């Protein structure tokens, strides 16, 4: 079993150099009593920080933050100073949308007894014609362009004949916008395509966990006869052919929870980071092993267990850690790595894509490029099978991947 470099934690390597784990001081807890060692190391770090600042001046700040940045996505706001220092001087920073007092009981957002569905797709999941594989793309309300690109490309071939009477359905899951104009556009879009599920919650970045649990609610309620469910995002290219082959080659269709496994990830304590997780949200040192949220597949029996588990597991705003890590652990389910799932995409390599199941961070024009190239059977790749291991080494540009271990334990 292999572990991938971690997205939400700090234990990745940057351009081949191990920068982290950094000795992050613990977040101030509001409790003024720190032990003597804590005080000592605080003074030492303060001293060290001052010396480093004195010598390097402003150079230090960008260097530190580029190292902390989430894989170069560039959404980290510019710091005004070293954040570990400000964390000592200020109370623990609260997470936007999930402050200390916000309820994390999913029941109050999911309303398991109520019908929270605002928009339903056309008869996708009648009991007599349930799909073998249901792919639900979590999409933002205003991402109509992304949805159209997916409909025009990898989702367009998911009719029965193409997959040899294996039925595949692709649906989009959205929450509601606070802007009624956008909600009306979604209504029109669904009248045209009939492939949208809209659930009753505000579609915001910090509500992504609510979205994923709504997904489980909708599917277990409306599509219980499907065999497999895949959760993915609207910036993903899914090679449905390869996915079907991978699923068909499994001995049993139950007890499945597969994707790109991430092990030993540690919560990020820097409030400026996109994936900041305050101690009050998660107090353990490492996350349980989880699957990257860019694409994971489960059998429907697992979906039912995860949904039930979610209703009694306190919410964590990182949906993948929450669903495939915390809820899976509570339901005694083990997420399993499959080498076809990747979540990092640096350079398009069509021979690699030909053998992969997922590709990440694909914009709408790239979506068409990949689709057209993969459709064109003239592109021949070296007959030597492009092994999936090979793909990791090439495409995970920023990181170096831990060596594949022979046993099933994550290193
Ligand atoms: C959070 O709860 C505590 C105790 O219940 C209360 O004193 C505090 O004012 C609350 N904070 C906010 C921001 O509501
Ligand atoms: C839930 O509400 C939606 C939208 O009003 C409707 O289409 C759907 O049939 C309802 N589901 C159930 C199980 O009543
Ligand atoms: C479709 O099914 C037939 C007969 O089971 C098999 O020979 C063929 O290879 C299948 N095609 C695909 C694309 O899976
Ligand atoms: C609502 O969305 C529409 C369409 O994107 C936009 O033109 C309008 O300015 C938005 N209204 C508000 C209040 O944000
Ligand atoms: C979702 O996010 C919005 C805005 O951040 C917030 O107002 C709302 O309460 C959140 N939860 C739900 C269930 O919509
Ligand atoms: C595939 O290759 C053949 C022979 O090289 C060529 O005639 C044909 O136009 C090519 N097809 C496409 C779609 O490029």
Automatic annotation (TrEMBL):
Transmembrane segments: 46-64
EC number of this enzyme: 2.4.1.-
Transmembrane found in the keyword field: yes
Localisation: Golgi apparatus membrane
Primary subcellular site in the record, as a coarse category: Golgi
Alphabetized UniProt keyword annotations: Glycoprotein, Glycosyltransferase, Golgi apparatus, Membrane, Signal-anchor, Transferase, Transmembrane, Transmembrane helix
Its membrane topology: Single-pass type II membrane protein
A GO CC term attached to the entry: Golgi membrane
Protein name in the entry: Hexosyltransferase
The gene coding this protein: B3GALT1_1
């Amino acid at each position: 079993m292999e572990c991938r470099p971690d997205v939400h934690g700090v234990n990745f390597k940057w351009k081949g150099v191990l920068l982290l784990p950094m000795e992050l001081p613990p977040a101030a807890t509001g409790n003024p009593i720190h032990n003597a060692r804590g005080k000592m190391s605080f003074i030492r770090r303060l001293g060290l920080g001052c010396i480093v600042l004195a010598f390097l001046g402003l150079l230090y700040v960008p260097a530190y933050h580029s190292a902390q940045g989430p894989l170069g996505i560039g959404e980290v706001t510019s710091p005004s100073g070293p954040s570990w220092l400000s964390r000592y001087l200020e109370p623990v920073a609260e997470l936007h949308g999930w402050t200390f007092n916000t309820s994390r009981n999913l029941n109050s957002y999911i309303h398991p007894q109520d019908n929270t569905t605002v928009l339903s797709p056309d008869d996708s999941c009648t009991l007599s014609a349930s799909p073998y594989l249901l792919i639900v793309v979590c999409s933002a309300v205003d991402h109509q362009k992304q949805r159209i690109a997916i409909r025009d490309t990898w989702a367009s071939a998911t009719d029965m004949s193409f997959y040899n009477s294996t039925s595949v359905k692709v649906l989009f899951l959205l929450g509601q916008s606070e802007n009624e104009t956008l909600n009306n556009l979604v209504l029109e879009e669904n009248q045209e395509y009939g492939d949208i599920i809209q659930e009753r919650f505000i579609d915001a970045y910090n509500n992504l966990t609510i979205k994923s649990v709504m997904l489980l609610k909708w599917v277990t309620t409306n599509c219980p006869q499907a065999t497999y469910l895949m959760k993915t995002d609207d910036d993903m290219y899914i090679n449905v052919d390869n996915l079907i082959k991978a699923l068909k080659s499994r001995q049993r269709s139950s007890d499945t929870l597969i994707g790109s496994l991430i092990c030993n990830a540690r919560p990020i304590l820097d409030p400026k980071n996109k994936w900041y997780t305050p101690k009050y949200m998660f107090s353990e040192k490492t996350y349980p092993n989880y699957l990257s949220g860019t694409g994971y597949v489960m059998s429907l029996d697992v979906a039912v267990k995860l949904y039930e588990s979610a209703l009694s597991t306190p919410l964590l705003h990182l949906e993948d850690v929450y669903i495939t890590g915390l809820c899976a652990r509570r339901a005694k389910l083990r997420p399993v790595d499959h080498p076809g799932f990747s979540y990092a995409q640096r350079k398009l390599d069509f021979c690699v894509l030909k053998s992969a199941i997922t590709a990440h961070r694909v914009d709408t024009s790239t979506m068409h490029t990949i689709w057209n190239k993969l459709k064109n059977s003239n592109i021949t790749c070296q007959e030597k099978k492009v092994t999936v291991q090979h793909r990791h080494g090439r495409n995970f540009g920023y990181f170096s991947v831990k060596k594949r271990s022979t046993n099933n334990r994550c290193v």
